[in-house]
Design brief:
heterodimer, A: mainly alpha, B: mainly alpha
Amino acid sequence: MSILEVLAIIVPSTLLTAAPLIFTALGGVFSERSGVVNIGLEGLMSVGAFTAAIATLFLEHAGFGNASPWIAILIAAVAGAIFSLIHAVVSITFRADQTVSGVALNFLAAGLTIFLVKLIYNGNGQTPYIAHNINKISVPVLSNIPIIGPIFFQQVTYTSYLAIFVSFVVWYIIFKTSFGLRLRSVGEHPAAADTLGINVTRMRYIGVMLSGFFGGIGGAVYLVTITANYNVSTIAGQGFLALAAMVFGKWHPIGAMGASLFFGFAQALSITSQQIPYIDRLPSVVMMVAPYVLTLIVLTGFVGRAEPPKADGIPYIKGQR
Amino acid sequence: MSKMLSKIQWMKLLVPIVSVVLGLLCGAIIMVAAGYNPLLAYGSIVQSIFLQPYYTGETIRAMIPLVLSGLAVAFAFRTGLFNIGVEGQLLVGWFASVAAAIVFEGLPKVILLPLCIIAGGAAGGIWGFLPGFLKARFKVHEVISTIMMNYIALYTTSYLIKNFLYTEGERTPTIPSAASLASPTLANLTQGSRLHWGFIVAILAAVAMWFILWKTTRGYELRAVGFSPDASKYAGMNVSRNIILSMTISGIFAGLSGAMEGLGTYQYMMINSTFTGIGFNGIAVALLGLNTPVGVILAGALFAGLQTGGLTMQSVAGVPVELIQIVIALIIFFVGSSYVIKWALLRFSMRGHKN
């Protein structure tokens, strides 16, 4: 098998698995840049995937056809943002330990979504399959370009390109707008931001809700492009993988995107490794654990130190030094 | 002043109780909204775990790993560390205990059983040591590193079972009886539940946690680091070493928790595609138990009862068992929001005084 053929298998598969991670990791960046640790990404993805499944099934039934999954992604984003309000209220207003709140958020999402699925589908623990997935397509014109075409523009979904595009938008928002500056300032030094008239609580609420919005999209994309139905094991660890991608990307939108692509690549390799020479001799477990081991290595600082925002995880109490 | 202090002490105890009540209340509201009968549901839980010996036995059985996981989380909390990695430490402990039992098959029970338990604890200890070391040496936050370690444990143990200890049914072979904690006596006593001798290990572990933290100099240092790393360092304590030690001991408790599942409940290890959830429940248990050994046992009993009784609830009242998970999540939220609960209680009691 030639290198090109190998790439034509792996790259589209990487783009497919990376898209949900990119969206969710971007959500994590918003939340943590505002100073709120979000372990609850997994739960937010679950809510997104669940909502997308139900919404797509409903919209299909109502006759929206191919537009259903796209509208469902938007609905899931809103659902994620609303669900993340729980984390915001508990960890910002009630000053609970943010990690504790995140853990509880994951619990609640896992329990609540399956509870609702059973309620809606008479005790059945999974939703029916959606009929209108977002399918893999070949991009017209571009896919005919020799070499690049088959690798980057065949067997892909539009959501992957969208994810990459959005990460540049998020980079622009966080680093080039006054809103982004405010968001980062309440995550680095909330007291200083407060004296300059920035409403710390409000900025943090926005940060958390954006993480819910993007986490919801991430879960929804995972559902409409990959699994097509929702059950207990739909979002098995994708949220934590996105969390790792955010850390691996050093709390930076472009970094998070790069890390997500890399993790997607590792996942794609572990799935397709049997078809690829040399790699098929490697135990599959190496590819499975690679993202996590590499994240640990990056955190130790051997490959450039990863520093979280200064006030990440610390509740802001006015007037307290 | 002392009156005020005793009031705050009382409040500390009130928070978990209020949280449990609020959690159950919210659960009831959800049930009503979904068209179920909450009285029937909760009634069936109480009825099954207190009046049916099988469910009583299963509740105590479920308590064993929950209490050990709770102790693991609580121990690390006392040193100011958040060990989310109990789940992974539990898996490697489970695997190590089962692997030891199979590899050393043929040894007499007096040697093999302790050996397997130690193997489980040691494996968990190593899995806890690593994040502790990374934190002490490289300042890697333990929350992130233990999450990573969880997944490494999940995939590695699955891989090892698949390639080295595989038998039909996606699991390892059953361990020899010389390594088993199972007891026909206990099973008969509880109408065939899977209750096993592991509860002794859990009790010993709770006593060990109390002894280490409150009766030894080292434990004093561990708690001091939890209160204030800077002050401890200034007082001449080795903060790094205490962090590593705390994570290692925490990991040992978690590893034992897994060993109890391997040697007691299941007698084998299956290939887990997702986490067992026991480790994450341990966080809830520790929080609700205020990170004290007695509190962990009580909270473990509550959650074990809810989970075991949840099955009856599903069959009797038709409520999906996931409701229990929702209730537990809500209880964690409430305990976590203790600041607000304390504030509300204070307002409430003050108003009482004025009238």
